[in-house]
Amino acid sequence: MEKYLGCHLSSSDGFEAMGKAALSIGANTFAFFTRNPRGGKAKSIDEADIQALIKLMEDNKFGKLVAHAPYTFNPCSAKESVRGFARTCMADDLKRMEYLPGNYYNFHPGSHVGQGVEAGVQLIVDTLNEVMWEDQQTVILLETMAGKGSEVGRKFEELRAIIDGVELKYKLGVCLDTCHVSDAGYNVKYDFAGVLDEFDRIIGIDRLKALHINDSKNPTGAAKDRHEKIGEGEIGLEAMLTVVNNPNVIGLPCILETPQDSLAGYAAEIEKLR
Fold this sequence. Notes:
Layout: E1 4-7, H1 15-24, E2 31-33, H2 47-59, E3 66-68, H3 80-97, E4 104-107, H4 117-131, E5 139-143, H5 156-165, E6 172-177, H6 178-183, H7 188-202, E7 208-213, E8 215-216, E9 227-228, H8 237-244, E10 253-256, H9 263-273
Parallel strand pairs: 1-10, 2-3, 3-4, 4-5, 5-6, 6-7, 7-10
Antiparallel strand pairs: 8-9
Helix pairs in contact: 1-2, 3-4, 4-5, 7-8
């Protein structure tokens, strides 16, 4: 089975341009923000451009893409205005993703800001039940979180609770971020197989749809969420190779989110992990 490796790419020049940029660095998948990563603005849809990307992906045997919601979304905020912003934008994002069918839409579950995990989970469930529909062609991915502040999703049990509450749960999966789960206390460095065993027991390995491949600036359990280049952090190259070569991971889109100055840095990491 094929390894699918890529990174976040800028959508400023359009969809086909992202596909060409991916090819230029040896990638066969990529991630992109559905709108400004710090705000709510989305570009107008260019159907011809999207079709050009779809053809490029077919011609070059790409894996699935991982669209990423903006970081500003917080569907479990204590403020209705903040939750409403997330609902409105997520609903619009999912409609826009229909032009690129069969791919993934990843989001951070959010922070409960003092309401408690249980209340946060319920608010996330309410948002998902409102924005999802039966015929949507996109699978929504809950991202594993590092546990800084009041983030929901630091434990697999919290993601499972969200999945259990969502009506259309067959359209839900998980994106596992190696930096986040390590920072949350899971032993990625020495026992990634054990981490996946726990994931399988609590969530189900069939829910694992994509990974963010990041080293960490901090030791296991730090709850910090600071990404590092592959092999230069606390997890290390050997462990990262173990991750991407795990039989449950091969065939899934693996997205690099490491701090790089240029695409050349990602090209080098993709080569290292191939």
